[in-house]
């Protein structure tokens, strides 16, 4: 059944507050796509384009655009529309729109401070994506169970999940896919999750709900074509349900009479309105790219037909089942497995809506197995089905809590057991959200603050500087956010350089990407990138204008990791740069007592450092009176001598 509107609003406001607080616990770097597929393109369209007085169409010279946005067919004239789409850009701007409008609003209101540009999008996702996903799980639980308390346990599982806390407030297209899927399942709940005769309780026309559901599905597929793995089983389940309902209401027995309602649903509702959702995305992309294209076809061509997704890492086919699902479900895994066991193996399903739970498992299985066909696998690709795992785990969490509380199931005792279940998830979130890979975020905050301070100090001078160069020599491409985490109010702007690792070099075994060249030989790479500067930093100052255009000048800021900094120390000093800060990035070694040592922090073979160099490269933290010692990798920031 649908919960009461007043109760739903109260739950939503409470969850919004929780997710807004959640954003303060997520100050780390998880994956480049969080920034480079959403925030950076939005920044380029709003702030960079306006500063450069460019048109609203895509400006490829903006540094925030990766190859995914710049991909174009070699022949734009003789190819058909579909061929141009296959060979064109692979990212749709539809997933960028919320951040585009948010940045536009900040700019118009003159509220584009460093804090709001960098942290504001997380607040937006907390309200627009994370909270609706949690509430959708709570609403869906009203259809999968008849026990009044169980929806709140499902809501608890969703809100307490470490992976939800770690990812739902991030600016991923995966997060939007998750929200669209759960909201669409709410729209279809009476049909695919409801019991017999429950559809009559719906206040919205079933036709409107079905059309809206698959319209959202088309938008989801346009953003991430792999999400079709969830929408196909939803459409098939709906078609079968509609066919069975039509058969019960009709005396016709011919096979085509049974097949007709299913085909009408699949072709007349699912396909048509799904195509309309894709059409909406195409219009948005036309306004941005300046030409008609279907980016998800480009993504399908690049990742599936060309098999290039494996260029960015691959795992065996069973990885999602043996590693991915156990990792993201975490503490809820035993409850999820118990639900599956009761439904499939034991043949004794829990006392609730068996059809609903079976259909949820069909969607989960189809999604996981379809994604297993791709060699490139990531934890975040499973995010859209994590709410469904929480939906399945909730009733069993309630059973455990009541069993532990036994006859004295008081509110205080129940809260104690729930807090005990929440604690491991919170510990994981605190470590991963505040410490692990925090350096890429912190270093950009520092750069923005230093540039703003210097620009303010120089405002009274006629030759004051407002543009600063930043070079990221980190051994990996896109290992930090860019302009979206450097922006500040006023005239301060940044010119950046990141190491290249695009498919044009990754797919050619004869070519080494810049990221690979630097990781293999950082000293040689720097000597080649800054040839004159390393040998004589003043040699270009009095030369004829343009004679140094073929080489890179020393930047105002240089970012690298501690092990590279040790090897490049003399070169960096010659370039007129000095160290201004170190930022903890993560644990890279462990020492127990005087014998057991493991990790790159203690083994020089992994980074080419001697034992003596290792001792001075990484920060060491002693615990338990020195019995346990942790080695901490750090990101190092260098600045030009003229900066404070």
UniProtKB/TrEMBL annotation:
Record's GO cellular component terms: endoplasmic reticulum membrane
Highest taxon, organism lineage: Eukaryota
EC number: 2.4.1.-
UniProt KW Nucleotide-binding keyword: no
Cellular compartment(s): Endoplasmic reticulum membrane
One function term, GO molecular function aspect: alpha-1,2-mannosyltransferase activity
GO biological process: GPI anchor biosynthetic process
Membrane topology per record: Multi-pass membrane protein
Pfam hit, one: Glyco_transf_22
UniProt entry tagged with the keyword Nucleus: no
Record field: transmembrane: 214-240, 260-284, 291-311, 317-337, 358-375, 413-434
Keyword entries, A-Z: Endoplasmic reticulum, Glycosyltransferase, Membrane, Transferase, Transmembrane, Transmembrane helix
UniProt similarity note: Belongs to the glycosyltransferase 22 family.
Name listed for the protein in its UniProt record: Mannosyltransferase
């Amino acid at each position: 059944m649908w919960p009461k509107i007043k109760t739903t609003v109260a739950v939503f406001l409470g969850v919004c507050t929780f997710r807004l607080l959640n954003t303060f616990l997520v100050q780390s770097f998880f994956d480049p796509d969080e920034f480079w597929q959403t925030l950076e393109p939005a920044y380029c369209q709003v702030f960079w384009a306006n500063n450069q007085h460019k048109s609203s169409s895509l400006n490829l010279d903006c540094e925030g655009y990766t190859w995914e946005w710049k991909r174009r067919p070699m022949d734009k004239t003789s190819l058909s529309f579909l061929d141009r789409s296959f060979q064109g850009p692979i990212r749709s701007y539809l997933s960028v729109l919320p951040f585009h409008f948010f940045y536009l609003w900040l700019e118009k209101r003159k509220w584009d401070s460093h804090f709001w540009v960098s942290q504001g999008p997380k607040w937006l996702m907390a309200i627009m994506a994370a909270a609706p996903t949690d509430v959708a799980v709570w609403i869906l639980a009203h259809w999968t169970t008849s026990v009044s308390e169980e929806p709140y346990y499902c809501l608890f599982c969703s809100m307490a999940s470490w992976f939800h806390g770690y990812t739902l407030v991030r600016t991923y297209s995966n997060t939007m896919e998750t929200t669209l899927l759960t909201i669409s399942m709410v729209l279809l709940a009476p049909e695919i999750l409801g019991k017999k005769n429950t559809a009559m309780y719906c206040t919205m026309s079933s036709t409107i709900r079905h059309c809206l559901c698959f319209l959202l599905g088309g938008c989801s597929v346009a953003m991430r074509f792999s999400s079709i793995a969830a929408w196909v089983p939803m459409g098939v389940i709906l078609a079968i349900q509609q066919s069975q309902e039509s058969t019960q209401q009709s005396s016709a027995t011919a096979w085509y009479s049974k097949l007709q309602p299913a085909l009408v649903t699949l072709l007349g509702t699912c396909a048509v309105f799904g195509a309309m959702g894709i059409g909406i995305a195409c219009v948005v992309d036309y306004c941005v790219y300046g030409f008609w294209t279907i980016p998800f076809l480009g993504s399908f061509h690049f990742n599936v037909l060309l098999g290039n997704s494996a260029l960015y890492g691959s795992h065996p086919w069973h990885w999602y089942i043996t590693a991915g699902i156990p990792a993201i479900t975490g503490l809820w895994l035993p409850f999820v497995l118990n639900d599956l066991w009761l439904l499939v193996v034991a043949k004794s399903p829990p006392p609730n809506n068996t059809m609903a739970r079976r259909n949820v498992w069909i969607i989960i299985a189809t999604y996981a197995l379809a994604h297993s066909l791709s060699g490139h696998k990531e934890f975040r690709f499973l995010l859209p089905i994590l709410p469904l795992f929480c939906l399945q785990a909730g009733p069993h969490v309630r059973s455990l809590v009541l069993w532990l509380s036994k006859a004295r199931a008081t509110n205080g005792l129940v809260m104690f057991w729930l807090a005990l279940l929440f604690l491991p998830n919170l510990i994981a979130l605190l470590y991963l959200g505040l410490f692990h890979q925090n350096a890429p975020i912190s270093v950009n905050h520092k750069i923005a603050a230093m540039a703003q301070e210097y620009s303010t100090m120089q405002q009274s001078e006629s030759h004051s500087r407002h543009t600063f160069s930043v070079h990221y020599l980190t051994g990996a491409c896109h290992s930090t956010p860019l302009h979206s985490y450097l922006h500040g109010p006023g005239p301060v702007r940044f010119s950046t350089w990141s190491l290249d690792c695009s498919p044009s070099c990754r797919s050619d075994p004869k070519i080494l990407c810049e990221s690979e060249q630097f990781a293999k030989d950082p000293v040689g790479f720097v000597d080649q990138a800054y040839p004159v500067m390393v040998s004589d930093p003043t040699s270009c100052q009095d030369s004829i204008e343009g004679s140094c255009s073929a080489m890179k000048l020393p930047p105002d800021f240089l970012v690298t990791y501690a092990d590279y900094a040790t090897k490049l120390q003399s070169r960096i000093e010659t370039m007129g740069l000095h160290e201004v800060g170190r930022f903890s990035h993560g644990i890279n070694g462990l020492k127990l007592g005087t014998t057991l040592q493991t990790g790159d922090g203690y083994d020089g073979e992994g980074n080419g450092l001697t034992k003596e160099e290792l001792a001075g490269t990484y920060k060491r933290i002693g615990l338990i009176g020195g019995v346990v010692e942790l080695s901490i990798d750090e990101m190092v920031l260098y600045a030009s001598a003229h900066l404070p």
